[in-house]
Amino acid sequence: MRVDIDGGRLLRRLEDLAEVGAITGGRGERGSARLALTDADRDGRDLVVGWMRDLGLDVTVDVIGNVIAVMGPNCGHHSGRAPVLCGSHIDTVATGGRFDGNLGVLAGLEVIETVLSAGLELERPLGVAFFTDEEGARFAPDMLGSLVFAGGLTVEEAHDIRAADPGGPGPTVREELDRIGYLGPAPCPGAAPHAFVELHVEQGPVLERESERIGAVTGVQGISWTRVTLTGQSNHAGTTPMSMRRDPAAAMARIAVFVNDLAEEFGAPQVATVGRVEVHPNLVNVVPSRVTFTVDLRNTDDEVLRRAEAALAAELGRVADRHGVEVETEELARFAPVIFDEGVVDLVESAALERGLAVRRMPSGAGHDAQMLARMCPSGMVFVPSIGGISHNPAELTSDDDLVVGCQVLCDVMLDLVEGDS
Amino acid sequence: MRVDIDGGRLLRRLEDLAEVGAITGGRGERGSARLALTDADRDGRDLVVGWMRDLGLDVTVDVIGNVIAVMGPNCGHHSGRAPVLCGSHIDTVATGGRFDGNLGVLAGLEVIETVLSAGLELERPLGVAFFTDEEGARFAPDMLGSLVFAGGLTVEEAHDIRAADPGGPGPTVREELDRIGYLGPAPCPGAAPHAFVELHVEQGPVLERESERIGAVTGVQGISWTRVTLTGQSNHAGTTPMSMRRDPAAAMARIAVFVNDLAEEFGAPQVATVGRVEVHPNLVNVVPSRVTFTVDLRNTDDEVLRRAEAALAAELGRVADRHGVEVETEELARFAPVIFDEGVVDLVESAALERGLAVRRMPSGAGHDAQMLARMCPSGMVFVPSIGGISHNPAELTSDDDLVVGCQVLCDVMLDLVEGDS
């Protein structure tokens, strides 16, 4: 079954959603800031839910605020069978782009509107979901909504997580869900879909560099986030000989260099990032008393990722000894690599080829809701190129053509998944 | 001429001044917060000026708010000759201790009260001063008042400096001097004293470690403060291969390790500190776009200090190339090393030995008002031990015994300086 989506309609919905929480980048680029469960997120949710209801979909909100819209009797679908689901998220980081997450949700709406308009009779319904707090920028861990949906975290634990708001811990997930009107009745874990596909921008430079249009995503890199706190002795920067210092900033720097070198030594796909550093008291002429920083390690091979983690732990010990600082570590997130369903990956690849699009099988370097859904049902992802690999930035950009062909491939794959079952 | 100071009276005045702007440290230690030209600084000034007037001293306030109190006709001194001056500062950092600066001022008062009580007839008057904004915590540069007094900066330039208050630039020096009632009539540069001596806590660990009671300070380390801004490319931490990154945090870390290694390689007295680091956007899963940090380099040998600066500049270039980041540097402060008057240093050493106190000739790692006065007249300093080397912290502590013997050595040296001239 093949039917052509309406690219213009998709692009208009992307524009309309981007206006909610609109921000401007350094060179005038247009992005969005809709941190999870803020007023801006609520406004974005309300807009998308309105579109879902306009199509006559059955809209369900669950206890963690995930929204799932499925073809039901209102739009002429009576099978009662588990849906072929697609979706992603509509929350953003503080400096978010227009496509990260939003594309997968609005492309799903477009697929469903196309199928309804064409009057196709399907053996099982299609559905589209957006999951709460995928970014993790306001509530850790990221992919929170899909994690709870898939049964990876209890509702009670998730509800008690507090916002990392400026100026100290903010309200809990439950308080914010209630406040914005998205503390729904549907239970978690949710009912398993028949299959799940997520269309997403690559957020990396590979497809553009290789002049390919579609990524058939084979899996997601394992992620290891560690928060390290080093405590030394604050002292006058002029009067304390080097030999008598307990300097946590010097120690932090050694560890940051170590993980940077480690990633280069291990080679791709290993990556390592120190993205966050906080120094106390942060004065030019004071040896700091305390430095807190994060280490983000990722690899598609869990065995190698564990070696990287072990190397970091050993280096923390060596550097602590050398600089006389105390080390505390906290695991902020740890996800093993995910392997997507081979059948779904094949369908993505063949759908792209059938449309004449250059396609590459590739892992995802970022975490995505699809990796949580993979615990429940056959799952996969479709990537489209990110210009310059830029994401989490108003300068994030995918060409209109690529947005549209990505949506078309999503449509083709969802229809194949319905048919493959019949 | 020798006369014994009253240690109890000195300690009581230290306690009384510490109550003004009193703060409490993490373990209940008592410190003070009197940032320059705030209400708390005014209250501290008023208290000390009251004591000066109680002794009958001639009190002069100059256009930058420095206060100088000298024996005059009111207290029976009629020589009209330039005074042997001592002094320091009574402003503090936000997390100040009780002794940094305050000791040198109140010990000067104690010396003068002792001399007046003993009815000593002196060939030239003694005086005690406190200088404005020595800490530089609210108005940069530090040692502002003594710098202007010594003619190193014009009054107009100094008056226009704005406070680095929370939430953005605050009022100017002139506005704040006027507001707190310390915009005085005496001109700057001021009249050169006959000689200048400053008693100060070491603020470092050396005297305590070596079980010595008195430091005969030979000079002040040269200071070089550089603010470095590295600009790279913000990107997703999972999807950007290491080879395609322009990561300013990794670059900052390499430079921080470099300067730490450099100081160890050069050996004492070279020190190097990265005390301040700011990362943007400072998120765990985002390669930063920009990192700003400071490098504080100090040495007693200007030649070696210049070599350290040149090495830093070269490394900045190398690391910028390696990580593909842009470098901007700004010189925040640069003071050449200061050599104190050999005669004054000898007097400090011999006065200490005469009192049976273990003494060490040593440089100062911190900047002090005496280094500005050294441009005008023979100058020197007396150090007493800082327990644990801790300063700029409510936990700053010097034993009562050391406070008292330090004041006694100051008294002996000032009288020697009067006599040496007669």
Overall mean pLDDT of chain A stands at 96
Largest interface: A-B, 74 and 70 residues
At CATH level 2, the architecture of the largest domain in chain A is 3-Layer(aba) Sandwich
CATH class of the largest domain in chain A: Alpha Beta
In CATH, what is the homologous superfamily of the largest domain in chain A? Zn peptidases
Helix percentage of chain A: 25-40%
Radius of gyration of chain A: 23 Å
Shape, per Cα inertia axes of chain A:
globular
What's the domain count of chain A? 2
Give the terminus-to-terminus CA distance of chain A.
Answer: 12 Å
Q: Quote the beta fraction of chain A.
A: 15-25%
Sequence of secondary-structure elements of chain A: HEEHEEEHEHHHEHEEEHEEEEHEEHEHEH
Structural class from helices and strands of chain A?
alpha+beta
Largest sheet of chain A: 9 strands, mixed
**Number of alpha- plus pi-helical segments of chain A:** 12
In total, the number of strands of chain A is 18
Question: What oligomerization state is this entry in?
Answer: homodimer
**Unreliable runs of chain A, pLDDT <50, ≥5 residues?**
none
Task: Provide the CATH topology of the largest domain in chain A.
Answer: Aminopeptidase
